[in-house]
Amino acid sequence: MDFYRIRKLGKGAFSDVFLIKNRQDDTFYCQKVMKPRYLKHVGNEKKILNILSKIKHPNIINFIQEEKMYNSTSLIFEYMFINLLNFYKQYEEHLKFYRICDYAWQLTNALQFIHRLFIIHCDLKPENIMINKQFTQLKIIDFG
């Protein structure tokens, strides 16, 4: 696939995250570019993502591909609109009881799924839970 960067979405301790677009079909994706000094840590996340990419789940982020360029590695994921923390801060009026119940069900469903595969998410927090643009679907991210 041929991508180009739109803008930076955020940064973490180990990586920078960008919104990218596929030139062929105009689909948006998320690119996690690992910082060079932390490239040795990408191996564990890649192993988990390869397992999860073969066994799809609606509440686990879809891993698209890995890209290696010069001295950096990036991981390409489906694009999700907003993380749970920012959703709470920016769209509090959308946080109704039925939606909280639905999000709780989706989250426990995803955790049950990965636990059956003997995978434990070691950094589960609102910033690692993403929500789609319609606010209907939640997905767990960042298995590093």
Quick gist of this model?
This protein has 144 residues and is α+β, with helices and mostly antiparallel strands.
List strands and helices in order, with pairings.
Blueprint: E1 3-11, E2 15-22, E3 28-34, H1 42-54, E4 63-69, E5 72-78, E6 82-83, H2 84-90, H3 97-116, E7 129-131, E8 138-140
Antiparallel strand pairs: 1-2, 2-3, 3-5, 4-5, 6-7, 7-8
Description of the structure:
The protein has a five-stranded antiparallel β-sheet with strand order 1-2-3-5-4, with helices on one face. It is α+β, with helices and mostly antiparallel strands. The longest helix is centred in the last third of the chain and has 20 residues. The chain is 28% helix and 32% strand.
Task: Write a concise keyword list for the protein shown above.
3 helices, 28% helix, three-stranded antiparallel β-sheet, globular, alpha+beta
Helix content: 25-40%
- SSE order, one letter for each helix or strand: EEEHEEEHHEE
Shape: globular
Please give the count of helices: 3
**Cα distance spanning the termini:** 24 Å
